[in-house]
Amino acid sequence: MAELPAPTGVEKPKLGLALGSGSARGWAHIGVIQALEDMGVRPDVVAGTSIGALVGGAYVNGALSDFSEWVKRLTTRDVFSLMDFTFSGGVVKGEKLFGYFEKMHANPDIEELDQRFVTVATDMKSGREIWISKGPILDAARASCALPGVFSPFQHQGRWMLDGGLVNPVPVSAARAFGADVVIAVNLNAQLVGAHLSRQRPPDDDQGGNEEDRSLWQKMTNYFSSGEGESPGFFDVIASSVNIMQDRITRSRMAGDPPEITLIPLLEDFALMDFHRAKEAIDEGYRLVERHAADIRAWLGSPDADRV
Questions:
Q1: Cα–Cα nearest to 293, from 284, 283, 303
Q2: What is the mean pLDDT of each run of 10 residues along the chain (308 residues)?
Q3: What are phi and psi of 42, to 5 degrees?
Q4: Which residues have a catalytic role annotated?
Q5: pTM of the model
């Protein structure tokens, strides 16, 4: 009888990273990824919804470091300048924002990447969940970032797409479908209920803000929301409705398909448009991975988890 070859070792599980929706809180995804990389942990599959699709796209494109430095420098004036206001399908068209990304970074097709990448969008006509895993990275990310009432829908392959958070706020299922054995999910929706634009803080001087920035921010806030004790404003209603919906959908989806590890950034006071507070969110994402480092290494089957 021929001898069987000796085992060469146990194959490491394929790691998936599911980056959830959550608007400005999504900057925490940057810190999560940076901390994983510093541990020597490199996901084989990256699945992103909404802001998770944007950050995930920057990561798989090799642009995360530059992207991180840019968002940490954002002031309220910068955020405001990137908003191309419209009232056709949303408040912001998104062309300025994504046009800036395309100008500053390469935009290769997803098929050319070393890592598998997929974004989640919602077909506006049918309501179906759409997974985008081919074509330009930025198109895939933009299709996933069409928050109702905020960002205008995006036409992708002849179909109008809405935000992926409407159907799959934390895309664990997509990460598994694209080959992940172990999934780390970043859930930004656990503290969403009750958060809206009018809770946002204007920037302090030590955050790059000045009196002109605070005045500009207050004008934008007043445009969309009402003061304390008054009837809810337009943006309050939209943001609160979306937040409640995403929180409930997230609970349901993750109960049916739980990830191996769930990371929940503690960003309770972050509101929908707090994009100028990136450093706080990034730092929290980094600390979160440090707190769960032992669990992450255990699931990957090696105390040193060297995945390069």
A1: 303
A2: 50 94 93 97 97 96 93 82 56 60 82 96 96 95 82 87 93 97 92 50 49 55 54 69 79 87 90 86 97 95 50
A3: -120, 115
A4: 50, 163
A5: 0.82
